[in-house]
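FORM 12-B: Structure-to-Sequence Request
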């Protein structure tokens, strides 16, 4: 199905958040309501992640005007892990364009775990989407640069621009994952065997593992998300990072694939594009309005932060962010909010 709309001017859907004090108190309420939840398990398949304190919990909202609201452990930095996939994908889309990434990486959910080898086999070596490890490594392999070092510099500069400051690598996490990522090495080799990675697959795994080891806070994630919500301009620095079209495409992919094989449930409960990572981070994007960043290490069986999902679901409801929600036109008219004809 070809539904491209190239050459047609596109309008955007926008809206406003409530005033500053209301957003501020709702962010605090989200933290208060969810901090007592004790469900979920801290990831331990990357050994150093098991040292995380299960009580850590932070909630941040960054508005598209650059205002940031935070509550909880917002100073605790953690590795970005899979959330990096969303931003590297956006950077690669910016370089290669809509059609090329759709064909080479794909945009459909696999319905299988993020590190599935079977998914690659079932799809004749097609990585399917950029949020599973196969597609994420395929995206990393497409990053411009003459060698892995230049590719890394590009990713580091790009993700730092999304966050609005230079991000640091957690060398301990990088080392711990490098020593235990046999599965990712196998996936990269498999992609190579299908002709889907033109570079040295182990060098690609190395750059990918480094991007996953970048340290962020919940507030960083909120600002990174707000950049995708703001047509690609970081609302804190005022700097354009990617185009508005790239944001639109990235958010569509996140809606379909951002919460692993639970992406349908996520969309059903929260109604917004988002991406989670196994260190407990979660970024959610309300297009034209805000980015939400949360951090809490205990995860559901698919790898999504439990408190993070609950706090985000709460904020989506009370801030009116669900992109599928509407109300009858006549109701809106009665409240005096209809347009003059
Ligand atoms: N670096 C992790 C891996 O490749 C990321 C997984 C995740 O956050 O889902 O296994």
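FORM 12-B RESPONSE
SEQUENCE OUT:
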């Amino acid at each position: 199905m070809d539904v491209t709309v190239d050459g047609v001017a596109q309008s955007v859907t926008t809206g406003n958040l409530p005033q500053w004090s209301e957003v501020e108190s709702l962010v605090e309420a989200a933290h208060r309501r969810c901090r007592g939840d004790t469900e979920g398990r801290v990831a331990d398949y990357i050994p150093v992640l098991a040292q995380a304190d299960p009580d850590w919990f932070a909630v941040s909202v960054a508005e598209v005007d650059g205002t940031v609201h935070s509550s909880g452990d917002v100073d605790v930095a953690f590795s970005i892990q899979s959330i990096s996939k969303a931003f590297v994908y956006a950077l690669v889309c910016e370089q290669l364009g809509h059609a090329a990434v759709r064909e080479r990486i794909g945009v459909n959910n696999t319905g299988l775990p993020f590190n599935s080898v079977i998914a690659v086999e079932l799809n004749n070596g097609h990585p399917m989407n950029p949020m599973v490890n196969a597609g994420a490594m395929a995206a990393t392999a497409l990053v411009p640069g003459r060698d892995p070092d230049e590719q890394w510099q590009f990713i580091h500069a790009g993700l730092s621009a999304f966050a609005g400051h230079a991000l640091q690598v957690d060398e301990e996490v990088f080392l711990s994952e490098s020593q235990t990522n046999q599965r990712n090495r196998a996936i990269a080799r498999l992609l190579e065997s299908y002709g889907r990675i033109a570079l040295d697959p182990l060098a690609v795994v190395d750059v990918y593992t480094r991007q996953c080891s970048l340290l962020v806070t919940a507030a960083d994630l909120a600002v990174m998300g707000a950049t995708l919500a703001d047509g690609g301009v970081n609302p804190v620095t005022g700097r354009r990072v990617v185009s508005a079209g790239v944001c639109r495409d990235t958010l569509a992919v996140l809606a379909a694939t951002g919460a692993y094989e639970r992406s349908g449930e996520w969309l059903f409960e929260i109604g917004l594009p988002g991406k989670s990572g196994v260190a407990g981070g979660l970024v959610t994007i309300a297009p034209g309005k805000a980015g939400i960043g949360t951090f809490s290490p205990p995860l559901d069986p698919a790898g999504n932060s439990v408190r993070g999902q609950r706090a985000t679901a709460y904020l989506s409801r009370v801030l009116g962010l669900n992109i599928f929600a509407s109300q009858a036109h006549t109701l809106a008219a009665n409240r005096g909010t209809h347009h003059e004809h």
